[in-house]
């Protein structure tokens, strides 16, 4: 698990194809890896990767990237010298400054437009249609590993406001219209959808097939409690 608060901007040292997969070598730059062991998780542009090699000299690590990960993320487009957002897995004492992030990217979105708003930048992003219903105004979303708040919904698209500090400390500063980005929706949205689906199917523990006791959740109940607009 992660928080979506980027700790350092690293660089890709090398990308080595291994059949349908590849091995990525990352220069961790200012990120302290002294407390990282083989098998630990590190988020690279929002993608949870397992450290498979930690060189004894210098800063950096290697990780395997599977075909599944390549199909759902932008990691397959990385080249030597590209900058990436890095974050070590959280610990029980980590400050949760962003939101709970799994590092399991849901899909690839596209930056449609960016423009200046005061000292900040506004990003208009188009997610895959299959993810649009998870995104809510003032809800959380992760963009290339960065925890951000959704400012506005425009149809299936959504808008973000990035303050100068976020731009300076992440690779989002270099994004331009047309670029692809990794998206991870809020964990709560995923689980809520699953609970609602469960309420419309037969409870495995109910021999009579009665679905009323499955979760007690329904769209009507959520609307009544003020969770739906």
From TrEMBL:
GO terms for biological process?
A: riboflavin biosynthetic process
Pfam families, alphabetized: Lum_binding
* SUPFAM superfamilies xrefs: Riboflavin synthase domain-like
Q: Which reaction does it catalyse?
A: 2 6,7-dimethyl-8-(1-D-ribityl)lumazine + H(+) = 5-amino-6-(D-ribitylamino)uracil + riboflavin
Keywords, ordered alphabetically: Repeat, Riboflavin biosynthesis, Transferase
The answer to whether the entry has keyword Chloroplast is: no
Known pathway: Cofactor biosynthesis; riboflavin biosynthesis; riboflavin from 2-hydroxy-3-oxobutyl phosphate and 5-amino-6-(D-ribitylamino)uracil: step 2/2
Q: Where are the Lumazine-binding repeats?
A: 1-99, 100-196
Subunit comment for this entry? Answer: Homotrimer.
**Protein name according to UniProt:** Riboflavin synthase
Organism per entry = Pelagibaculum spongiae
């Amino acid at each position: 698990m992660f928080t979506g608060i980027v700790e350092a901007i690293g660089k890709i040292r090398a990308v080595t194809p291994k059949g349908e997969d590849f091995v990525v070598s990352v220069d961790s730059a200012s990120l302290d890896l002294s407390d990282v062991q083989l098998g630990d998780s590190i988020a690279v542009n929002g993608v949870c990767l397992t450290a498979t090699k930690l060189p004894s000299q210098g800063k950096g690590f290697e990780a395997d990237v599977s075909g599944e990960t390549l199909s759902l993320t932008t990691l397959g487009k990385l080249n030597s010298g590209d900058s990436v957002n890095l974050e070590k897995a959280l610990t029980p004492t980590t400050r949760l400054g962003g939101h709970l992030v799994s590092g399991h990217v849901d899909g690839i979105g596209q930056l449609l437009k960016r423009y200046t708003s005061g000292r900040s930048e506004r990003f208009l992003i188009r997610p895959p249609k299959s993810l649009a219903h998870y995104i809510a105004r003032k809800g959380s979303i992760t963009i290339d590993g960065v925890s951000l708040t959704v400012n506005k919904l425009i149809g299936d698209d959504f808008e973000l406001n990035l303050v100068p500090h976020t731009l300076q400390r992440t690779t989002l500063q270099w994004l331009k219209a047309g670029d692809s980005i990794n998206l991870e929706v809020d964990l709560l949205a995923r689980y809520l959808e699953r609970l609602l689906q469960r309420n419309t199917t037969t409870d495995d523990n109910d021999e009579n097939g009665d679905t009323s006791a499955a979760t007690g959740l329904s769209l009507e109940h959520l609307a009544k409690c003020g969770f739906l607009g």
